[in-house]
């Protein structure tokens, strides 16, 4: 059976291309749809259906643009109520793609409309299941997102629905089916996903904690909800864009791809109250950046961090990007619903400096220098990694101030004493430093290389923390 997984690492997202006899289907497309159209043209195939497993929270789907460009029908599962024309599949309904069949299996739990698609080849053999966020490799979808849209859908209630869907709809299927999930490790849509992006259902029944045969519903709910961190703030906004519709990607690119001279850039920042988003490498940002700009590097976990830290998708944004990567930045912002880019600095930061405009820097030291200072600074060390990383191992005496919720910890940073920030490798600590400096907190030093370099220098660490110390 011809099925291709189209994986986008920065979002840990998988879309799927299915083709047979000149007909094709796309499942869970990203915002920019031209790659799917090009792929179908290689097979001289017409895209017939666009299947959505659910209303996505972590990205804006490309289903509307793809329908407009190809004429394909959009298919959602039972109970979906979008604000545009779609086919609402019945549970068990079969769709024909060439000689292949795609069977909709309603699997509520992650969301109420969540649907798994069973793939059946030209010989009638069941090949695999595209599970969306119902079943991941090593995990299942978090059940706390739909309650942001409908308050009566508690996470406990959704977890119960998910238990029933897995037991009654997924687990009875053949062990040799291939599981094709919507996400892999790094996505915020689950908590324990594997780095693998496919597996057999039989193997998942053996190793996935959520598919244990002897698990009661109460045990499932308790384990699923245990350690579930708060979802990024932009998730509900992406859900609503996917339900209600959005501006076309082509229009977003046309209005956003505007080069601005340094003077125009400065004027736009003053007139629009835009966030100045610098996406260069953290080492470049540390050496020089526009005052009060926020760093989120394009070569790190870019889009999810933008969504988690800027939050409001309607926020105007001005971009400072490496030369030649401006279109890429606009594209990746639009994937998570940030469609209000005002423009970008033509010539990047070098043009700003050449114009003689004011710029700022971040104080930074090596891990070796950090070790030399440790005894004198051990009470003013701040760890901005995630809770699990901190609990597993952290520098003795380090304060836990996770980047995801940095605004909740602003009062913990000293006013008149220099303090030190670190993360795992140096990316997140520079993000944190830029946010703090944008809020007028400048008495900070970044530890380049982060915890990985600090450990090699022999700085004392511990792997225990009393949970009461974590907010």
Please describe the topology of this protein.
Blueprint: E1 3-8, E2 13-20, E3 23-27, H1 34-42, E4 46-51, H2 63-70, E5 73-76, E6 87-88, E7 94-97, E8 100-106, E9 115-120, E10 126-132, H3 155-170, E11 178-181, E12 199-200, H4 201-207, H5 217-225, H6 235-244, H7 249-256, E13 259-260, H8 262-272, E14 275-278, H9 282-287, E15 294-295, H10 302-309, E16 317-320, H11 326-335, E17 341-345, H12 348-354, E18 364-365, H13 367-377, E19 381-383, H14 387-392, E20 394-395, E21 399-400, E22 419-422, H15 427-438, E23 444-447, H16 450-456, E24 461-462
Parallel strand pairs: 3-4, 4-5, 5-6, 10-11, 13-17, 14-15, 14-16, 16-17, 18-23, 19-21, 19-22, 22-23
Antiparallel strand pairs: 1-2, 2-3, 7-8, 8-9, 9-10, 11-12, 20-24
Helix pairs in contact: 3-5, 7-11, 13-16
Descriptive notes:
The protein is an alpha/beta fold and 471 residues long. Helix 7 (249-256) crosses helix 11. It has a six-stranded mixed beta sheet, with helices on one face. The protein folds into three domains: 3-237, 4-Layer Sandwich (Metallo-beta-lactamase, Chain A); 247-354, 3-Layer(aba) Sandwich (Oxidized Rhodanese, domain 1); 364-469, Oxidized Rhodanese, domain 1 (3-Layer(aba) Sandwich), CATH 3.40.250.10. It has helices spanning 34-42, 63-70, 155-170, 201-207, 217-225, 235-244, 249-256, 262-272, 282-287, 302-309, 326-335, 348-354, 367-377, 387-392, 427-438, 450-456; strands at 3-8, 13-20, 23-27, 46-51, 73-76, 87-88, 94-97, 100-106, 115-120, 126-132, 178-181, 199-200, 259-260, 275-278, 294-295, 317-320, 341-345, 364-365, 381-383, 394-395, 399-400, 419-422, 444-447, 461-462. This is Metallo-beta-lactamase family protein.
């Amino acid at each position: 059976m011809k099925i291709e997984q189209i994986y986008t690492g920065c979002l840990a997202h998988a879309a799927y291309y299915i083709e047979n006899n000149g007909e094709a289907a796309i499942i869970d497309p990203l915002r920019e749809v031209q790659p799917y159209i090009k792929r179908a043209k290689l097979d001289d195939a017409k895209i017939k259906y666009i299947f959505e497993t659910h209303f996505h929270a972590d990205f804006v789907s490309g289903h509307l643009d793809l329908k407009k460009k190809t004429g394909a029908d959009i298919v959602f599962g039972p109970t979906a109520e979008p604000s545009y024309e779609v086919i609402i599949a019945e549970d068990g309904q079969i769709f024909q793609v060439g000689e292949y069949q795609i069977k909709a299996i309603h699997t509520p739990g992650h969301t109420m409309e969540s649907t798994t698609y069973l793939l059946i080849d030209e010989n009638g053999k069941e090949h695999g299941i595209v599970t969306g966020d119902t079943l991941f490799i090593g995990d299942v979808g978090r059940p706390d997102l739909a309650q942001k849209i409908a308050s009566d859908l508690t996470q406990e209630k959704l977890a119960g629905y998910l238990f029933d869907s897995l037991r009654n709809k997924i687990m009875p299927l053949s062990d040799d089916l291939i599981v094709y999930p919507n996400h892999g490790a790094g996505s915020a849509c689950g908590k324990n996903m594997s780095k693998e992006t496919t597996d057999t259902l039989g193997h998942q029944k053996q190793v996935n904690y959520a598919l244990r045969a002897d698990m009661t519903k109460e045990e499932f709910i308790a384990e699923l909800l245990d350690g579930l961190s708060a979802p990024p703030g932009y998730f509900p906004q992406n859900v609503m864009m996917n339900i209600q519709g959005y501006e076309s990607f082509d229009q977003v690119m046309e209005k956003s791809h505007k080069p601005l001279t340094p003077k125009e850039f400065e004027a736009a920042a003053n007139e629009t109250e835009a966030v100045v988003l610098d996406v260069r490498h953290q080492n470049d940002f540390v050496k020089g950046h526009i005052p009060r700009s926020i760093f989120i590097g394009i070569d790190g976990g870019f889009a999810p961090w933008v969504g988690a830290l800027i939050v409001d998708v309607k926020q105007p944004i001005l971009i400072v990007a490496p030369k030649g990567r401006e279109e890429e930045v606009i594209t990746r912002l639009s994937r998570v619903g940030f469609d209000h880019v005002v423009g970008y600095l033509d010539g990047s930061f070098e043009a700003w400096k050449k114009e003689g405009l004011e710029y700022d820097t971040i104080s930074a030291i090596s891990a070796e220098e950090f070790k030399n200072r440790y005894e004198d600074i051990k009470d003013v060390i701040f760890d901005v990694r995630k809770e699990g990383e901190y609990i597993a191992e952290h520098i003795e005496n380090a304060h836990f101030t996770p980047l995801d919720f940095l605004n909740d910890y602003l009062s913990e940073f000293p006013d008149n004493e220099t303090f030190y920030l670190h993360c795992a490798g140096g990316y997140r600590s520079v993000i944190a430093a830029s946010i703090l400096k944008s809020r007028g907190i400048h008495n900070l030093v970044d530890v380049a290389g982060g915890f990985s370099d600090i450990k090699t220098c022999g700085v004392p660490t511990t792997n225990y923390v009393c949970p009461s110390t974590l907010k």
